[in-house]
Amino acid sequence: MSGLIDATGIVKERIANTMKTDVPGFTFVNAFKKSEHEDDRFLFVVLALNERTGDYAVWQTYNATTNSLNHGVYGIRGLGDAISVCKEACNYC
Question: Could you tell me which residues come within 8 angstroms of residue 66 by beta carbon, excluding any fewer than 6 positions away?
Answer without folding.
Answer: none
